[in-house]
Prior knowledge:
Elements: E1 20-24, H1 28-39, E2 43-47, E3 59-60, H2 63-69, E4 72-75, H3 89-94, E5 99-103, H4 112-121, E6 124-129, E7 149-151, H5 160-178
Parallel strand pairs: 1-2, 1-4, 2-3, 4-5, 5-6, 6-7
Amino acid sequence: CRENNFALNGLMGVNFYQKTAGIIGTGKIGQAMAKICRGFGMKVIAYDLFPNKNLDFLEYVSLDELLSTSDLISLHCPMTPETEHLINSETIAKMKDGVILLNNARGQLVNEADLADALASRKVAAAGLDVVSTEPIKADNPLLSVPNCIITPHISWAPKESRSRIMDSTVENIRAFLAGKPVHVINM
């Protein structure tokens, strides 16, 4: 009410319609993110070390293609030796200028110093991170001093409904295992 201009110039956001979303990791959460992006009219491409070819709403591409063509990159993969620091100066250099990066997976997927440099130079326009490499975050984390970086304290799982689903899923997994029919098997 104190401003002469009610338009809020500079706070207009980004229109994702007809832009490209790159999903890295296509488990249940990555699939759900892909569906959300499609709901915004985005083209969705994906990269996964173990692609699920039964997902007709995803187009799998190479990591290099995803990096170079995505306007939004969302990380949903596990932290493994192959994915540690997946986002680093080398992979950032392959990204489109002005890309937006989201990480709701694991903090160690991102080399934080390299991302901070990319945010400072505006190579990466913005980052939304629910995870960092060390939690709780340390005061000297380079991402705390760069523009356009939103960090939440690993709370995307925190709503009561999410925690209830986690508990229900855990109970069902134990029941299935005890019945000799394990589900969601990761390692054999």
